[in-house]
Please model this.
Amino acid sequence: MADVVSRETRSRMMRGIQAKDTQPELLLRRGLHRLGFRFRVHDKSLPGCPDIVFPKYRAVLFAHGCFWHGHSCHLFRWPSTRPDFWASKINANRARDCIARQKLIAAGWRHAVVWECALKGRSRRPEREVVLECADWLRSGATCLEIPE
Model:
């Protein structure tokens, strides 16, 4: 199936997608800050450049977009145009995520992933519930956490 917009329009639209300070990330940062957590953002010295870093808890949090990280939820759908390109790109993102998590664990860091579908879409959870689950995890000392829809 052909794309419904021109190649130039699609290119402009894709350039406009942010990699940092996404809506789910900002929601998590605001909510956790309100609860008294202090953190750094986008620490390039750590594997995977985590979205939120909690040095006091030796923990990091990733706010993953369902499309870009290939989550199996209602927000992810394989594109029908250039399927080989997208499969290669999304699978490379998944592999990079896995390697970053392994390196973080090896370095003694805990990690959490909050999927975009947990905060948006038809099966989203209440924002406060997601933030409180992250806060409980930070205080618990558990190694990892994943929050899907």
